[in-house]
Amino acid sequence: xxxxxxxxxxxxxxxxxxxxxxxxxxxxxxxxxxxxxxxxxxxxxxxxxxxxxxxxxxxxxxxxxxxxxxxxxxxxxxxxxxxxxxxxxxxxxxxxxxxxxxxxxxxxxxxxxxxxxxxxxxxxxxxxxxxxxxxxxxxxxxxxxxxxxxxxxxxxxxxxxxxxxxxxxxxxxxxxxxxxxxxxxxxxxxxxxxxxxxxxxxxxxxxxxxxxxxxxxxxxxxxxxxxxxxxxxxxxxxxxxxxxxxxxxxxxxxxxxxxxxxxxxxxxxxxxxxxxxxxxxxxxxxxxxxxxxxxxxxxxxxxxxxxxxxxxxxxxxxxxxxxxxxxxxxxxxxxxxxxxxxxxxxxxxxxxxxxxxxxxxxxxxxxxxxxxxxxxxxxxxxxxxxxxxxxxxxxxxxxxxxxxxxxxxxxxxxxxxxxxxxxxxxxxxxxxxxxxxxxxxxxxxx
Length: 446
Ligand code: FES
Ligand SMILES: [Fe+2]
Fold this sequence. Notes:
Layout lengths: L29 E3 L1 H4 L1 H10 L6 E5 L8 E7 L2 E7 L5 E5 L14 E3 L2 E3 L6 E3 L4 E3 L22 E5 L2 E5 L7 H5 L2 H11 L7 E10 L3 H7 L6 H4 L1 H11 L16 E6 L2 E5 L7 H4 L6 H12 L1 H8 L7 E5 L3 E4 L4 E8 L2 E10 L5 H16 L1 H16 L7 E3 L10 E2 L5 E4 L4 H14 L10
Antiparallel strand pairs: 1-19, 2-11, 3-4, 3-6, 4-5, 7-8, 8-9, 10-11, 12-18, 13-14, 13-21, 14-15, 15-16, 16-17, 17-18, 20-21
Helix pairs in contact: 9-10
Bound molecules: FE2/S2 (inorganic) cluster and fe (ii) ion (FE2).
Fe (ii) ion binds next to helix 12.
C-alpha cells in the first residue's frame, strides 16, 4: 500500500518503465486515468485479476444434459464449459493443443467430441486428446496425454452457479464471497432456490469503454437522478409518483451501499421498498398479466410470485465480473479490450411458475436494459471520450463518504455508507490494487 502523501503527482505524470500498480490507486482514493485507458494495464488485469481470483462462468441449468457445453471467456481466455457423461463440469481452454486454433467456434451445443477445423485433432468433452490425424507421422515417444486440452485448475459450483479460477491456490468460493454470501443466498432463495432456476440469456450490450466502468456503476446510486433523469421523469409523468426509482430519495434515503470485502459491493434498496411489484416500472402488459394470474391462481399466490418478477431489492456485485439482482437476474461483464466491453444479461426463469410470471420476468429484464442501461452506456462512452485524452489531468476521485460519519462497520464486518457514497467503488479499487500488486499464481491444469 502506498502512502498518498509521498506519491508525486506532477501535472503530466505518465507511466514509464515497470508499472507501479500500488501507486495508481492512492490511499486517499484517487485512481489514475491509465487504469481505464492503458492497454498494458488491461493485459495485466487479464492475468492478475481474471487469472488471480474466481470468475463467474454460467449457471448449471445452461448445461443440464451430459455432453452439453457453452463457450465463455475468462478475462480474454476462451473456454468451453462442458458437462461430461458422469455429470462433472469441466472448464477447458478452447485452444487446440496442436497449433493453437480456436477449437469450438459455437456458443452452445451438445457434442461428445470436439474436432479441430485445421488438421482434425479430436478431443473428448472432458478434454482428452482422443485422435491425432495420421498418427504414424509422430515419433515413437510422442506423449499424446501431454496434448490434452488445458483446463482451469479450480472449478466450483455454488448453488448451481459455476465459477472457475486459474489460481490453484485460490480460497473456496464461500470464503471468497464472505459476507456477500448471505446476500447472494437471499436472491437465489427468492427465486425459489437453485433447483428451481433456469437461467436464460436475455441480451448482450456493448459499449466503448473499460469493463470497470460497468462494475463501478452497478454499485453507484450517486448518478441515478442525473444520468437517468429522463427515465425517472417519463415514468413519473406517465404513471404517477411512487413507481420505479422514485424510492431513491437522494442522500437522505434509508438505502445503503456496502463494501462486502474482496472487492464485492452492494446497493441495498430493501429499506426503501415495501413492495417490489408496486415499485417496479410499469411495462407493457403488466396489469393484464397480473389480473389473469390472480383470476387463475388466487390473489395470495399471485402476489407472492409478482413480488419477485423485477430486479429491485439489491444490486450485488461479486468482483470482478458478476452482478446479481434481487430476482437472481444477472449481468456478466466481459472485458474485450481496454476500451471495449460486453455486458451479458441473463434472467432466472422459474420452470415451475405460471407462464405469466416467466413472461413478466423477461419483460422486466428487458425494461431496464432497454431504457436505463442506454443512459449508463452513454456516460461510459463520454468518460472514455475525455479521461484518456488529457494527460495534464491524470486522476479521478472516488473518495465520497470516506472518513465521514456516514460510513459504519456492520456486525458482519462489512462497511456500509449512505447510498450516494462511493464506498462500494472504493472496495473494488482496494481489491484491484491488492490483486494487481501480487505476482500471478496462475496455472493451467492438464
Ligand atoms: S491446429 Fe488443431 S489440429 Fe492442427
Ligand atoms: Fe445507471
